Every structure is written in C-alpha cells, then in structure tokens.
Amino acid sequence: MNESFLQACRGERASHTPVWMMRQAGRYLPEYQKVRGTIPFLELCKRPELCVEVTLQPLKRFDMDAAILFSDILIPIEAMGAELSFHEGKGPLIANPCRDAEAVGRLKVAEPANDMPFVQETIRLLRRELDVPLIGFAGAPFTCATYLIEGGSSKFFHETKKMMFGQPGLFHRLMDKISETVIRSLRAQAEAGAQALQLFDTWAGVLAPCDFEVFALPYVQRIFRKLRDLNVPLIYFANNGATLIDLSAQSGAHVLGLDWRMDIGDAARRIGRLAVQGNLDPLALFLPPDELKERIGRLLNGARDACGHIFNLGHGIHQQTPPEQVRLAVEFVHELSAR
Amino acid sequence: MNESFLQACRGERASHTPVWMMRQAGRYLPEYQKVRGTIPFLELCKRPELCVEVTLQPLKRFDMDAAILFSDILIPIEAMGAELSFHEGKGPLIANPCRDAEAVGRLKVAEPANDMPFVQETIRLLRRELDVPLIGFAGAPFTCATYLIEGGSSKFFHETKKMMFGQPGLFHRLMDKISETVIRSLRAQAEAGAQALQLFDTWAGVLAPCDFEVFALPYVQRIFRKLRDLNVPLIYFANNGATLIDLSAQSGAHVLGLDWRMDIGDAARRIGRLAVQGNLDPLALFLPPDELKERIGRLLNGARDACGHIFNLGHGIHQQTPPEQVRLAVEFVHELSAR
Q1: Measured between CB atoms, which of B161, B205, B260 is closest to A261?
Q2: Alpha-carbon distances, residue A64 vs A68, A132, A133, A330, B311 (angstroms)
Q3: Is the preceding peptide bond at B114 cis, omega within 30 degrees of 0?
Q4: Nearest chain B Cα distance for residue A203, angstroms
C-alpha cells in the first residue's frame, strides 16, 4: 500500500510528494469516452461496476498516489428530491428549483443506504482493487444550495443571494437539510471504505468573506465536527477561495485544497498547521515539457515549508488535455520531490 | 462641478465619499430598456445622441458623483477587425476568432478618429451636459485578447491559455496590437473630454499570479505609462483579482478597483498610497434597507484609512436590481460618509 497521500494529509514526511488530480477519471481519457459513449452520465454514476472501471482507468496509465471515487457532487442532491439531469455542454439542470418554504420543506434528508447504495457499493468494490488510498467526496452545502436554488449552474447566483439576503431564515433551513445529508453521505462512504473525505465547495468563491462566514462556513464546520470521529483526513476545497482562506483554515479540515489563483507558499504560511493540496493551473498542462517541469519545480519549492503537501491541479483536468502531459506531470512531481 | 470623485482619485479628502456604480446605465432601469427596445446593443453604442441619453439616465434618478461613458469594452476590438455581434443571453460573439499568426497579422491597430469617432463624439456631447466628472474606459489587453481568441465569453479560457502557454511569442504579438489600440482609444477619449480613465480587466482573475505578471501586467503598465502625461486619474479594475493585488499595485494606476470578494480594508493596507474603488457585492442591493445601510457603513469604515475611497459595487449592477435600492445605497453612502 502506497501511504504517501495519507502521510502528507497528516503532515508527515513521505518519500515523495503524493499526487492525484481532480477529474483524473474523465473525458480527457479515450477509455473513459468509450465507457461514456454507451451510457448517460447520471446512469454511469449509479452503476458500481462501471464506476469502478472508470475510477481505475487513470491509475492504470499513471503513477497516481490516490484514487477518487467516480461520482458527482449532485448525487446527494438528487437523493434529497431534486429532479436532476445532465445535458451535454449545459451541465446539470434541476427541473424543480428550490426557492420557497414549500420547496425547502419538501426536500428530504437522504439516507445513503436506501437512496445512494451504489456509492457505497462502488467504494467496497474499489477497495479490493486499489493499492493507493481512496478518496470519497461530496459537494459542500453552499455549493449544493446554489444548484438547488438556481436550478443548475449560474453566472451571478442571483436567486441564491436573493434568498440569502432576503430570506436568511429559509436559506439556513435549506443549508441544515443539505448538511445533514452530506454528513450521512460522507459517513457512509467512510464506513464503506473511503480513506479520506473531500468537500468540494465549487462556488464558495462567489461569496464575500463576510457572507461566507455567516452563510457557508458554519455548515462546513458542522460537517467536519460530526465526522472527526471517523479518523480519516478531511479535505476542504473552496474553489476561487483565496480571500476565504483564513476562514477556511477554521473549517476543521486537516487539508485545504487550493485553486491555481493563489501562490501556494503564501497560502501555506497563512494556514499554519494544515496540509495543502494543489494547485497547478489545469491549463498549464499545455506547456512544453521543459517549462511544465520548471513550473512544477517552482510549485513544489513554494510548498516546501507547508505542513504536508499533496500535489494536485487547481481545478479539474480540462478535457482536451493530452494524457501524455498528465503522465509527464506525475513523473516530474515524483522526480523533483524524491527525498 | 462636483469634484468629490476626482479628489478621492487623487487621495484628497472630499466632503463625502463619492459614489458611482459599474453599469449604472443599464438594464435595471426601465428608461434604459425603453431605448434598448428599439435598437440592437451594438448599434446603440454607435449612436452618440442615444449614448448620451443613456449615460445621463442614472444621473437624473440618483445622486451619483461620476458618470461613465456608455459604450462597450469590445468596441476597440471590433475596430481592430473582429466580426463582433451580441446575442441576447449569450453575450458577445466574434465570428472570426484569432488563433494563429495569420489572424493576428490581419488585425489592425485601430485609429479612434476614423474607426470609433462615435465614442469621442459621445464624450464631447456629454461634457456639455454633466456637472460630475466623466469616466472613459477600455477593456484591458488580456481581457480583450480572451474575447478575440475564444471568439466570445468562456468558462475555462482554454484557447487563450493554449496560445499563452504553447505560442507565447504569438500571444505577445497579439497583446502588443491590442495595447496600442487601447492607448490610442483612451488618449482620444481624454482629449475629447473624459476626466478619468478606467481599464476593465474582467478576466484577469483567471490567471495565476505568475502568469498575470508575465502575460498581462506588462501591457497594463505600458498603457498607463503612455497615458501618464494626460494628467487624468487612471483606474485599474482587475476583476476577481484578490491574488493579483500586489502586482496590480505596480500597474501605474492611481486607483485600484476591487471586486466584492476582498475585504476593502485588507486591500487598502496592501496597496498603500493608491486610492481604492469598490466593493459592495452587487447582489447585496437585495438586502433589506436597514441591513444594506449597516453593510455600507461597515464597508466605509473598512476603507477609512485608504488613501482615497470611491464607493462602487464589486461588479456591474444586476439587471433585476430594484432602482429604489440603488437610490437608497447612494443616499446611505453620502449620509454615512459626510464630513
């Protein structure tokens, strides 16, 4: 078992800097496209044997130090009662957006064993195959709330903020229900075998720090507090969250994920005793190999004083990325960080 | 003449904190919708008498301390040879995206007197009407380059970064041409009567600081250096630019515009002798009046030690904003900052 990822999460010194990449199982891989070509995305997420196949694809090609469950951050949202669908090029759509007290009241707190059994089944199957740690995950409550309220992706998050600012009580009730679902989902994933848990707060970065502190952070804190007894590393990734980092450091996470906009050395200095995960611009994988190597070297050097560093991208792999460049990046991280 | 805006730009103490709002002339105003209902957006931008009317609309309703020319950041791009069009709900489209040496070679450096005379004419007409300062503007080179390369708005700026990382020489040639066009356009605006000039770098925030420093900042610096002799305040707004702020402070601007993600007090401390402009979340205009007032009070207090503060939103006014809330916000700023 390759323990480097878990060691770095705990702030221990590993033989090298571990690396995994967000969306490492994804559309840039022809073998993923082949599986996806035969089946709609949401159905794929519910077929454990296919999720296992897809999760393992990048590990067969590249020397990744961790695997991440193939699933979607909106799976628990669907289990709460959202009518979810995915449309090529449009992202997720929710046919029954949740914008009033009645709609919030109708949402149920999901029960993983009944409502998302395929997630835990995928994890159980994966653990038999893997010799690197397996990361489970969920969407953070604020991010889930934006999808529920907007009915999909958004540019300005107008409906979300209108509810936040105009009906804060209702917004908090919604966040309560989502948080309870997320707690149950992550606990079930850990009990099924996930060895680390990551909360993706994809849209946290649209909040001013004063609003993040009131409307988003308390729920992240509650989730991590309730999961502390599982004794698995807890990772919080607040995308576009540079101005939230001092608050994110109080989330209760063991590891903070960083998007690519922030200097990793600056971040490490500010968050003190937490490990950092990140943060190469995914598009930097289009650099010529020698420049890619130089940039990875600078990144590793910037993170050298961090209390644990897991190399990752600052966002998911772009689908046009040549797999060969991913292979090179993994190789460079291992070569340049070998101790 | 109300000088408070220009005083704040120069770091002088005014009788109150001046206020204007990005997109103050826009779709949230029924009188704007009425003008727009009769004419396509791009045509409106080229009709000086209508641009004057639309620019003045918010000043008739609200006690704004500055006016901003009604135009679009892509007007100079069209003048360079881009086949620009606007489509409701889709934003700008450029039919001939600029992705290779031939396309970059074909672009011309625009000549404002010939290629955008309507902009200067609008400014000349406006100056006869206004008793507050008039702000001229342009898109910053990086932002203009993204539209030219992507052919419109983008989510990941994949084509832009592919050129940046894969063909840096070509990218720099493109930035050269855009910068020269921007310099000419802003100079012509000042000569026509614009009393301050703002560069909008809407997409700067998608760059890691190390890339911003190499691919975007040098062009902003060149533009401001070349315009220094005009003796008008120069404002740089790098949207989503919290992690770029130390670099932006070296841009040569007199004033830095801030989006809403950053605490304005933190920003003011970091940029030292520059004035700050910003930075209320535009969606905070949906707060109940008493909370809106409280938030504006906190913002003014946060900026109290800044070397000049111009109150603004952190982004354009959202089109669903009730005009009454805009009126209240302006009133609160004036009331709470009166000296």
Answers
A1: B205
A2: 10, 8, 10, 7, 49
A3: no
A4: 12
Among B28, B149, B165, which would you mutate to test the A interface (most chain A Cβ atoms within 10 Å of its Cβ)? B165
- The two structure tokens encoding residue A192: 């099924």
* B230 at interface of A, judged by CB pairs closer than 8 A: no
In one letter, which amino acid is A318?
H
CB contact under 8 A, A283 and B161: yes
Active site residue A27: yes
CB contact, 8 Å: A288 with chain B? yes
B-chain CB neighbours of A261 within 8 Å are 205-209, 240, 242-243
Quick one: average pLDDT of B235-250?
98
Q: Do B161 and A286 touch (CB under 8 A)?
A: yes
Is residue B121 within 8 Å of B190, Cβ to Cβ? no
pLDDT at A280 over 90: yes
ipTM, 2 decimals? Answer: 0.94
Location of structure tokens 């770098």: B201
Contact B277/B283 with Cβ under 8 angstroms? no
The mean pLDDT value for B229-257 works out to 98
* Average pLDDT for A248-255: 98
Residue ranges of alpha helices (H) inside B193-216 are 209-211
Q: What type of residue is B114?
A: N
Q: Does B203 touch chain A (CB under 8 A)?
A: no
CB burial of residue B264 (10 Å; 0-12, 13-18, 19+): buried
> Is B283 part of the contact surface with chain A (CB cutoff 8 Å)?
yes
Chain B residues 133-192 with a CB less than 8 Å from chain A:
156-158, 161-162, 165-166
| Number of domains forming the structure of chain B | 1
Buried b (16+ CB within 10 A) or exposed e, B178-216: bbbbbbbbbbbbbebbbbbbbbbbbbbbbbbbbbbeebb
Interval B315-325: pLDDT, tens: 999 999 999 99
Of B158, B262, B287, the CB nearest to A243: B262
**Residue A248 sits in which domain range?**
4-337
User: Measured between beta carbons, which residues in chain A are less than 8 angstroms from residue B205?
Assistant: 240, 261
Cross-chain Cβ contact A207/B156 below 8 Å? no
What's the Rg (C-alpha) of chain B? 19
Nearby residues of B164 by Cβ (< 8 Å), 6 or more positions away: B171, B211, B215
User: pLDDT of B45-102, one tens digit each?
Assistant: 999 999 999 999 999 999 999 999 999 999 999 999 999 999 877 789 999 999 999 9
pLDDT per position as a tens digit, B96-152: 999 999 999 999 999 999 999 999 999 999 999 999 999 999 999 999 999 999 999
Q: Sorting pLDDT into bands at 50, 70 and 90, what band is A262?
A: very high
Task: Provide the 8-state DSSP code for A228.
Answer: G
Of B243, B263, B318, the CB nearest to A262: B243
Task: Compute how many other C-beta atoms are within 10 angstroms of the C-beta atom of residue A323.
Answer: 16
d(CA B173, CA B179): 10
Cα–Cα dist B330/B311, whole Å: 9
Phi/psi-derived region of residue A315, left when phi > 0, alpha when psi is between -120 and 50, beta in every other case: beta
pLDDT at A339 over 90: no
- pTM score of the predicted model: 0.96
CATH assignment of the domain containing B37: 3.20.20.210
